[in-house]
Amino acid sequence: MANNSSSKPLLFLLTGFPGLEHVHPWIAVPISLMYFIAICGNGTILTIIQAESSLHKPMYLFLAMLAVTDLCLVTTTLPTMLRLFWFNVRAVSFGACATQMFFIHSLSCMESGILLAMAFDRFVAISNPLRYSLVFTGSRIAKTGLLMLLRGVLFVLPTPLLLRLLRYCRANTLSHSFCVHQDMMKLACSDRRVNVIYGLFAVLSTFGIDSLLVLLSYLVIVKTVLNIASGEERLRTLDTCVSHLCAVLIFYIPLIGLTIVHRFGEHASPLVHILMGFTYVLIPPMLNPIVYSIKITQIRQRILKRLQSSTVLCVH
Questions:
Q1: 166-177 tens-digit pLDDT
Q2: pLDDT single digits (tens) 135-164
Q3: How many helices (H) and strands (E) does the chain have?
Q4: What is the CA radius of gyration of the chain?
Q5: DSSP string, 95-119
Q6: DSSP state of 19
Q7: For residue 41, what are the CA distances in angstroms to 30, 32, 67, 286, 312?
Q8: How many CB atoms lie within 10 A of CB 229?
């Protein structure tokens, strides 16, 4: 399947659950359910924020950006994932694989930047509330979203171009049911040092800096909260950060896990690679709207209100 005389393979082969191909359609059921929850959950968040003018505030606008990013991410991985598990179609062209890889990494970079912006939102709201409305104006929020979009595109754009320059003459079977840079790069038999160096630079310049700034923001937030005299007020203040902290952990833990597996897990079971891949692309988009719906009272109340209205209409 590999084309030794070309700089790129004719096809890549995606991996489901080796040895369990006969039950792939059954495995596709929970995977499809996870996609359904992610799409409906993020779609509901977007619909409510768009419809309720009282939610047109910085925190909710950043949440809307996060929901859009998660929707795009699940839409990017949905075709190859369901094609593999429902119809056992494993082959994907180099161009399609590189395109999917570009969108997965650029959207992940955007999500990391949005989580950083949300951390800064909480930092300003708690540490300097009098300047909050001055810092987070509508134009600045829009510029932040545009900056995160441009950053994701510009940092990831060189990776498919660098992959195209490599020569592939090894087995062309990927470790996941979708395409990522580390996985595609490992299949090359030519010198990969430029790809490795640029990949490390891009990761440290985006996810590395973002995670450090998020940590720094929360260190200042904790210091500010500890200066509050009332214990009840401390808990109330920290409670406004719980949903964002959950989103940060839900995003970074699978990301770090997948990176460790690709870097140090050459001898690990294929099942470890597969499960970490599923966790990386499915868990954050599925859990983020659930966490925010449970923890943010305004979102929860409007969801319940819409459900009650729908029930009344159905009854009548």
A1: 888 767 888 889
A2: 999 899 999 999 999 999 999 999 999 999
A3: 12, 2
A4: 21
A5: HHHHHHHHHHHHHHHHHHHHHHHHH
A6: T
A7: 16, 14, 9, 7, 22
A8: 6
